[in-house]
Write a structure and sequence with these properties.
mainly alpha; 9 helices; potassium; about 0% strand; proton channel activity
Amino acid sequence: MNKTRLEAFSDGVLAIIITIMVLEIKVPHGNELSNLKPLIPIFLSYLLSFIYLGIYWNNHHHMMHTLKNINGGILWANLHLLFWLSLIPFATAWNGENHFAPTTMMIYGVVLFMNGIAYFILQNLIIKSQGDNSLLKKAIGKDYKGKSSPILYLIAIIFANSIPIIAGIIYIFVALMWLVPDKRIERIINHQ
């Protein structure tokens, strides 16, 4: 299998995930601006999740540019990542509908944590498949952002039950940390 098929499948799944997520935002009854007020937590939850999905889509796209060949392990690791990404609409809807309640903030964090772990697994399988001269390994270097994200998610999960606002701030911080475009992979590929 070549990487274009894997990319196309992954892009399609992510498009469906975003579509499902936006369909969870129900149109309010009434035609006044005040009717939108109950949707504020739902929209904020959607916005953060949309940003996260955009970050994963962007980083996945760059990571795929380093691939020369695909093996079964990479296929399964990619499906593993897509599985956890597919749970984002559920966690988003539950969190927004319940106005960022402690349990829903914790579950949201668990889903984000598992997405980070799944991405890390995929990334490491790609590096392993590329051998000592891995383009991806050269590009990510020590990968401080990749290693610190799961730790921050765990901290947020711990705070979610007692101080959910701290968990929310951590989720936003991690998203902002990744929102800054990462040019490492582009530089390595263009240099090659």
